[in-house]
Amino acid sequence: MVKVVKFGGSSLADADQFRKVIKIIKAENDRKYVIPSAPGKRFSDDVKVTDLLYRCYEVASKGEDITEVFSQIKDRFNTIIKELGIELSLEEEFNKIHSAMVHKAGRDYAASRGEYLNGIILAKALGYKFINASNVIFFNEDGTLDFEKTNNVLSEVLKEHEYAVIPGFYGVMPNDTIKTFSRGGSDITGSIIARAVEADLYENWTDVNGFLMADPRVVENPYTISKVTYKELRELSYMGATVLHEEAIFPVRTAGIPINIRNTNHPEQAGTMIVASSDSYDHERVITGIAGKHGFSVITIEKDMMNSEYGFGRRVLEVLEKKNISFEHLPSGIDTMSVVLATEAIEGRREDIIEKLNDSVKPDSISIEDNIALIAVVGRGMKNAKGTAARVFKSIAEADVNVRMIDQGSCEYNIIIGVSEPDFKKTMNAIYKEFVVE
Ligand code: ADP
Ligand code: ASP
Ligand code: MG
Description:
Layout: E1 3-7, H1 15-27, E2 31-36, H2 49-61, H3 67-84, H4 91-102, H5 107-126, E3 129-130, H6 147-159, E4 164-165, E5 170-172, E6 178-180, H7 186-196, E7 201-206, E8 227-229, H8 230-238, H9 250-253, E9 259-263, E10 272-275, E11 289-302, H10 312-322, E12 336-342, H11 343-346, H12 350-361, E13 365-378, H13 388-398, E14 403-408, E15 414-420, H14 424-435
Parallel strand pairs: 1-2, 1-7, 2-4, 3-4, 7-9, 8-10
Antiparallel strand pairs: 5-6, 9-10, 11-12, 11-13, 13-15, 14-15
Helix pairs in contact: 1-3, 2-3, 2-5, 3-5, 6-7, 10-12, 13-14
Magnesium ion (MG) is lined by residues 8, 184, 187.
């Protein structure tokens, strides 16, 4: 049996957390490949090492003195080493990194050093081989993962080592510079490694009891989901359940490797199993989870008889395509069509978009509404349980919230609802209460 284990930033924030992690790894011989993140927050106002590194990069790129922020970063690592009582000096590494920063090494290089240094410490503490991610994780010229090469090299290299630590979050470009995944990307590294070694399980250790039915910062003390399918998880993580990076399921999905989300602070809890498929679901709760995101706008286009005009939708989308804007949803009526997209994507070019749409489809009216939050209600049981949509909307109406948009995916296991941003929390809680009987 082979388990790949990834530990997030809060799991490795200080020496006490390191000790918990080491205990977890040593508790099972199967926990062979370990992927650490950079040290995260030790308390709520603390700063993650990754953010200190980004700050350091900003200061250096302005040509200013990095001494202060760099010494904060050094301190974080040195304190962990000292308190763990391990025989290790990172002075040489610090000097190299300091010099690279001063000579304006890239932003991604700077950010990646958190995982790199933490990996060296963890490998030393465990007595495992340290394998630099820049020797095994490869990106293409366009910044996408070179999956073939990565998978081949990783499986060859890891064959040589029964146990190893491989830092998360980064890899190397064809020109030898360091590139990172997007924020939270150590989850992706873990998944890639699980795939390469054909692991039996990918354990993802974090600071909550698993994948919860809702964001614990929005709904108080939500239940842990015991089992969730890749598809449901993809919907939930894309829609804002940030516990697992939204791209982390792809490498393991095709190989059918389950992911187990666990709590480093409560290893006695079973956590959440993420599996390829499941016929069973909780008949009482019906839904698997709820997630949501802020920052959307809706462009509404009205035109009499639009449905009889060939290519109407295509011409609308072409305007967006030419501006490299992707859309989230396309709810449409008989004579109206709406495009839901991230507000960020249209910022600074609204007038231009409206003008191009006017030219292209000559509508009767166009309007843009901002401050929309999207909420996804997801569950494999929704297909079979009649009346789920009715319960969702009844609970929202009872909370006195006006629904701005509805989109039921053709897969029948999700309903997406748009509400105005101030109603977000109220709506999430209303839906949660409707389905979870305390
Ligand atoms: P790590 O540093 O271990 O990678 P993250 O901070 O990336 O951890 O993810 C864990 C956090 O995700 C939790 O502390 C929680 O605040 C947040 N979160 C948001 N939605 C959910 C959810 N549905 N279930 C669990 N956690 C969630
Ligand atoms: N340390 C990185 C971040 O803060 C990557 C990760 O935690 O997965 O985004
Ligand atoms: Mg994370």
